[in-house]
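Escalation from tier 1.

The customer reports that the assembly of two entities below gives different structure tokens on two consecutive runs. Tier 1 could not reproduce it. I'm attaching the input and our single run for tier 2 to review.
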Amino acid sequence: MKTPRHDLPPTFNYRKLRLVLGDSIAPSESTCLAWNAFMKTDELREKYLAYYQSQGHSRQPSDVLVPTWDPSVLFTPAGMNQFKDHFLGKVKLEYTRATTCQKCLRTGDIENVGRTAYHHTFFEMLGNFSFGDYFKSEAISWAWEFLTSKKWLGLDPQRLSVTVYKDDDEAANIWHEKIGLPTSRIARMDEDENFWPASAPSQGPDGVCGPCSEIYFQLDNGKSVEIWNLVFTQFNRVGEPPNNLRPLPSKNIDTGMGLERTASVLQNVPTNFHIDILLPIVSAAADVCGVKYVYESENGRRLRRIADHVRACAFSVHENVIPGPKKARYVIKRLLRRAVLDGHQMGLREPFLHQLVPVVANVMQGPYPELKDTVERVAETIRKEESDFFSTIGAGLERIEKAFSSLQASGAAMVDGHEAATLYQTYGVPPELFQALAAERDFTFDWDGYREAMKKHEDISGGEKVELFQTGPLESLKESLRRTEFLGYDTTQSQAVVKGIIRQADDEQERVESTTADTELAELRIVLDQSPFYGESGGQVGDTGIIETDGGVFEVIDTQRAGELIVHLGRMKSGKLAEGDTVTARVDEGRRAAIRRAHSATHILHHALQKTVGLHAQQQGSKVDADWLRFDFTNQQALGDEQVEAIESIVCEKVRLAAPVSWKNVRLAEARQAGAMMLFGEKYPDPVRMVSMGDFSKELCGGTHVSNTGDVGEFELIAEESVSAGTRRVVALTGQRATQHRADTFQQLQALAKALNCELGQVVECTRQLQNELRSLRKRLQGGGSSSDLATPIVKSLDVSQYVGQRAALKEVARVLSASTTDLIIRIQSALDERAKLQSQVSQLSASGEVSAESLLSDANQVGDVTVVVSQTPGATPNLMRQWIDQIRQKCSAPNAVLLVSQLGDDKVLLVAGLSRQLVARGLSAGEWVGQVAPIVGGGGGGKPDLAQAGGKQPQRIPEAMQVARETIHRFLA
RNA sequence: GGGGGAUUAGCUCAGUUGGGAGAGCGCUACAAUGGCAUUGUAGAGGUCAUCGGUUCAAGUCCGUUAUCCUCCA
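Tier 1 run:
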């Protein structure tokens, strides 16, 4: 064996690397040697899976990174996650030994990523699992053989040591006696180190748990690194110690070997980031960022962080979990922004991270060839988010500058942490950025205050706790019954036997033997041995209906699924129901038929979307209700009108075709081969149910469908909107509701026509005209210039005898009014009211004759050298009155005081007073003047010395007010 | 699920106990200069997101809804 290579040159010359591997990103010469001499990561992964296959394990593919089927986690945290139900015996086992290489994501140690040799957010975990099959002895022997045998990894046994849980003599003995490991290399550790979950015996939680045994490899520098953890789940924790660990009847093995760590050991490199599948990403990051990769440097840490985060982001976005504001999407967004911030701090000002996506796909293509297919989409999604973040940073810099100037003004020497936190929480200004800029100006940064404020924010935001393993009566029912047979594909009515009744009171669930209508208030859950009721899943809502016996009627208001159980939610209407009763379960057939129409329409819509907007329009989620459906899909822009029409026409065409709908159970691989649409994050059973429609649609789907696309009936898209960046949502109606919607549309249009007093075909034109009228009336009252009518846009004439035209007309009206289509009538009505009001004001204004600066001046009095005007201008708005006053000032060179009184409508009085500069200079105030007058008409007011306005509510006292106005100004001038 | 913020001219945004809706860029017209670039003058363009409340008076204060941004879970 070659000499150890810990002293690996800390600097890599990227140009040399490129020569070695051509287009892909190449390692340094010495690292190349290491990789040639030792095992590649792809080879390690393959060997592991092959070894356990040879020991009778079923080789299973990696589960998705973001398991939407598991509400208790956002990301797959470990290899065992996909086998949770296997461990608990809640599913039928097709195999009792499995092995996987699982892609995982954890953010708990995010602060350490890049700083230490072994921390990642994204990583792969090799694992072997036993579901009540083999236990400690085999698990330990096989691990040892795989690690040390020349045929497999061939690690030097002398450099391996292990830990066991302090009370686990069984494991210790196996290591010592069977493997022959000296006791000096078997350490006994406490429950906080060697128990899963950590410290479970004393601190909980209750449930499945067990001791573990870790395997360490000693590096050349004497330090040891943990490469494998064997978990022996053999207990059920019940309550507090002592004697709270009960042996499980069926014991399990759950192991995890860190792929990257083990590879780094095999390849003899000082950090995971230098193994053959990671160094190319680090090097590429250095290249893209235009810096040299130096291991022991701040930039080195940054580049490693970027390499880690870009892997996480690329895999998530590949699974259509795009950066966003909620949950998993938010975590990805944060990871991405952290990486981008690192780039920013190395001087980058343009998106760069997206350039690393092809590199990631390249080094990971062995186990994950599918990454190659989505490189473009993934890179574009990442580029967009990067670009958004650069804008955020840009805005942030301005805010930071502002903060600095106020700091300087106040003579502070430290950036207030609370303020930095507020800036971060409100505008996303990264504190690291703030701190870096602060350092440049010799400010210190109050990290303690910042963390304190963020902690507070966390507390305020709250959050619900999700249990790793659920407990309760439903879970125990799961274990005893396993599954409810679903009969609903073939029938909507059947006999069944009641297997369990659960009563829900407050947050507590309680299993009961029987129930009567007297307890009607309580919500009940009923589980049967078989049922025609469809439990909500795959977006399709649960069925409603009735479960009855001779002696009792139970109304089902919703149906949910719990694992493979079907749970009927509802309440007793009459009589009594008990466990063991034979009942008749009857689904509400009319509603079910409507759901079938909507669900089949969803598949057709999916097809139409892909055909119209492109293959990237993949389903993100959907909800299927009675003749109503909602469908989210990935698309950057809103759908245009033509696209919506094209989609509708494709759907309608497929409906007219009356294509047969069929379904069959096929092997998952076969379905994939057939090109059936599959969704990420969904857990598909194998075999799987494939639903086909004509020759245009194949989807994996457990839902209920019409037998012929013609049964869908009418179809209509009623909404298109944004859910989050990159995701659009459409809502559609089918069958009866679509028909009803069309009738409603027509009625609405009729109502508009009636309100506007015009023909149906004229509604759009009349609305536009009404808007124009309002505009010019307002302008006239505001005293603006002569308004030219807006150029009427050329619109294609709408044929309102057809439905499409009617709908287009309504949409156009909504656009003109910038209102939602639901309250058009209200808006039109209020527009009409406003027009009437404005018209009466205009006539009021014109009734008092032509008002102008001249006419007002001709009414003036002279008081000494001052020209005083106190006049009425009925119907005038404040704006007009101000303009007149301005004009008087221009025309009249003498000092002048003007007060205009206007009655507006029936019960409103407006007063505007103005004083020329000379009078203001003499210390007079228009505000005071108007202030003296306004109370007469029941109001108040104020303003600046040269111009003030006031209002009141008693028009009948205007003459009196004008008298007071004259007296007041006389007094002022005296 | 929760906290913070934003929404003003075509675009980017100002608007300071509530009292005349603004700037820059862009647009139109005219003029000057000219190879292009340019400069000056004038002008058009706004239900201050929505609905409601407080007030004599709301872009400004309070609440609703919508959309977007941002943070936490």
